[in-house]
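Researcher: Next entry in the queue.
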Amino acid sequence: MANSLLADIEAVWHSAGLPLPQTADVTVLRGPEIGLMMVRARAGGDGQLFNLGEMTVTRCSLSLGGELVGHGYVAGRSGRHAEFCALSDALAQSEPETETLQTEVLAPLAETLEARQREEVEKAAATRVDFFTLVRGEDE
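Model: Structure for this entry, 140 residues:
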């Protein structure tokens, strides 16, 4: 869900009929906060860890019905996106809502994300250039 576009999330969320972050039974424990996180990496995948740089992250925590607490972290500065992630985390802990969340929200978002990634791969493949070397007679 964190990798999906906010417009896609809102579209499937409304069609599923799930509660929105601003409804009465949702209590914001920690409103959307924007901050920085250090991104660490390894050279070659198995080398020493090093600090690659910082990235902007938005986080949010909320309570659903006073019982379920959800947390959401997203890359970037979208508070609304973090609220939806936190709400989906809380709903995933609720037995009656888990299946609705999985089938009507998460599955369509995964399909949309896969289609978008396939499209990017196809665009990149269309610009592929194959290089080759001609052998000149004097190089032999």
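Model: The first strand starts at residue 26 and ends at 42.
Researcher: Noted, moving on.
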